[in-house]
Amino acid sequence: MNSVQERAIQILKNTYGPDSEFREGQLEAITAVVNKQKTLVIQKTGWGKSIVYFIATKILREHGAGPTIIISPLLALMHNQIEAAKRLDLNVVTINSNNRDEWDDIYASLNTVDAIIVSPEKLSNPEFIEKLGTVSDIEMVVVDEAHSISDWGHDFRPDYQRIVYLLQTFPDHIAILGTTATANDRVIQDIKDQLGDDLQVFRGDLIRDNISIQVNPAQSKVERLAFITEALTRHPFLSQQQGIIYCLTKKECDSVADFLLQNGISAVAYYSGVQDAFGEDISAEILEEFHTGKTRVIVSTVKLGMGYDKSNIGFVIHFQLPQNLIAYYQQIGRAGRDGSPALAILLHGDEDEEIIKSFIDSANKDPELLQQILQVIGSSDNGLKRNEILQHFNLNVTKLTSVLKYLYVHNYIYMEKSTYFVHPNHHFDAVKNAQLQAQLNETRLAELDNLKAFINFDGCYMKFIADELDAPDTKERCGLCAHCRNRPFVTLSEDNDYLEAAKDYKNKLHGVISPRKRWSNNKKIDDIFEHGWTYTVDAYSPIGKRFMRERDQGHYSDKTMTTISQFLKEHIEAHHIDAIVAVPSVRRPSLVKGLARQIALEHGISYVDVLKRSADNAPQREMHNSMMQEQNVRDSLQTVNTDAIREQNILLIDDIVDSRWTITIAASLLLEQGASHIYPFALVNTGSSD
């Protein structure tokens, strides 16, 4: 046994007790890192990957090395790592958005701390890179969740690409350690291509021996809500546990958490940008209350994915399909980290595949578009800001931001004071990039096919996932999943009294329509209509499905007419509605008009036909950013016979609302013609911005 191994064992026993022993592979990985080998550790969640880099850090520091740089993707994970480091008597600091007031002090102490934890996004910050350049004798860089370096990884994050460029600025002799639980052969090869073929890989078995997986048949959202609520209330195991419920969208997180709360289960929604009633970010508070047990259930998007370390999570339930099986393995790995039994239950429905395909589509980077954006930016000597670039392309802000990030992290462009410039020496190969994008898209669609095969699989679920990850496991069965046990762990009882409550809840997910913000000469134009209403914000609820089906058929049923008329009755009376106006449609010219006429007739008020729409503009759904959406509506809508709306309170009716530009411009035109107040209404809000 060499001196590095002896010291590592001594540190372990001094910290965790004389009977402590390394898990298989830990000591070997520590030795490789201290000996400055490029190392990739692929081990299942809970194996103890942080032990490797913290003990290696301690040994290197004892031999005069400077601080270790740890690149970690999540704020929650950073806090967990700092606590773990304290046990080893390591002084570890983190630089993140939540401790801005401490940055100056932290920067001043960088040469004295043992490790610095930062997010990959921080690598794009010139101030941080400048400060990092003043740190002496850095001998180790850790890349946590290293699969994110790879385009092929399930959770590719563009900022991780900056890591490769950062490593090129360090001497060749520094230690590089990547850690992950989710890297298959393709991802490993891509990481080798970026970090070097001399990368040493420590790979362990990935079958978890304490998580029982159950996959339900396809269910409606109502059935899924009822299933979860009954299970968390009455099931002998689940009713006693804390856990995570994953959803694909923010809107679904809010809906599921709200229903659970209404039925006595402590739950909260968690996603990027989650705010309180005052618009303040409350991410940290949510995690703290879950960590301490004050909140029982977190309903989250993939934001609560990588690295979140709470040892006693008893279940992970997916309300909708994950984006792929590798992401699924990573997410269920939040459960049972203390070794106790845990349940992973996968629910799914008809809408999931459509949402996942939209994610895949949004992840694609069109090489022709990339080249066009480079040309537009390059044509300006003074560079261009994001909104100036947006004017040239039919893209939404989210898509453009994603594309600019891609160009930025690959060093095709750079940024100064929010202005983008093209790197003078960039070499963008559109043909090569097109080949890469096609391969990536093909891989993501293949992963979706594998996911669909998984939910219909009749063998061991955990083994299926391990094979997807190219894991070295020799076990053929986990012995724990619903198929290995030959029984479901939780069932939806036929007399589940939450079914009716869930149906009623989903059918009454009414929403609010607020006007789009508009600007003129850099000044915000005041709101141009009163807040209105949508009957449902969920097109996949029972009533949402009915509305959309009847819309496609071109005729609303008497049942729908009655439902809408009754819903609007109190609004018509409360706001003293004088007349109803329909938003015209070229494709379905009589549909909304018929609905509006019927409601006007039943409530004894006027129906006024004052809005006309031309047929020569592009469909609004093909417009992808606010400027083009607004202009497209303006070019197609006009008013006629406006005397009847002067000084009138108008109920403006449409079938669906998405971007809200049609409603906003229609209301603006009516107000310009003398209407007093406009109250918009739509049957369904299909807005997919979340």
From TrEMBL:
Domain Helicase ATP-binding as annotated: residue spans: 30-201
UniProt KW keywords: ATP-binding, DNA-binding, Helicase, Hydrolase, Isomerase, Nucleotide-binding
Recorded coiled-coil stretches: none
Domain of life (superkingdom): Bacteria
GO biological process: DNA recombination; DNA repair
Signal peptide residue numbers: none
Keyword Calcium belongs to the record: no
Protein name: DNA 3'-5' helicase
Protein family: Belongs to the helicase family. RecQ subfamily.
